[in-house]
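From the methods appendix. Each design record in this collection lists the tokenized structure first, followed by the designed amino acid sequence. Records were kept in a plain field format so they could be parsed without special tools. The example shown here is representative of the layout used throughout.

RECORD:
FOLD TOKENS (143 positions):
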């Protein structure tokens, strides 16, 4: 069960609202299994229906994370008008190359957090995406 500070959830929700009408996306770095910092990443798709994290920003954040001894706690994105559940496209994109679901996902063990703006207050949920495209919801404990 991910334990997520309210401030981290608030930052992801704010990002989702600010990027309307498009989906937002980003990464959450952690330390010792605790999320500590939200990093906004440009959605190169600039779409209300999908996201593509800017690869240059992702690479820089990966380097920064390694240099600081942090971990990748989560990848997050928003759904503008649908539920906070990974779509088939979200699942395909969790693998590299995209759609190769019979192998480990690109970031095994990392949470995928979705922020749905389809309702008020926004719904925030966490998942693991596993080999075979299996989706497992992980209830969030807000701390």
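DESIGN:
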């Amino acid at each position: 069960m991910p334990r997520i500070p309210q401030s981290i959830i608030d930052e992801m929700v704010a990002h989702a609202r600010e990027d309307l009408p498009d989906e937002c996306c980003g990464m959450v770095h952690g330390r010792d299994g605790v999320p500590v910092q939200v990093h906004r990443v440009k959605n190169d798709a600039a779409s209300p229906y999908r996201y593509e994290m800017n690869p240059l920003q992702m690479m820089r954040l990966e380097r920064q994370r390694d240099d600081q001894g942090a971990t990748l706690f989560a990848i997050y994105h928003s759904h503008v008008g649908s539920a906070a559940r990974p779509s088939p496209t979200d699942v395909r994109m969790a693998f590299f190359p995209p759609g190769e679901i019979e192998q480990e996902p690109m970031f095994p063990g990392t949470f995928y957090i979705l922020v749905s703006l389809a309702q008020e207050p926004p719904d925030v949920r966490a998942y693991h995406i596993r080999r075979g495209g299996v989706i497992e919801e992980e209830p969030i404990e807000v701390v």
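APPENDIX NOTE: The chain has one domain: 3-138.
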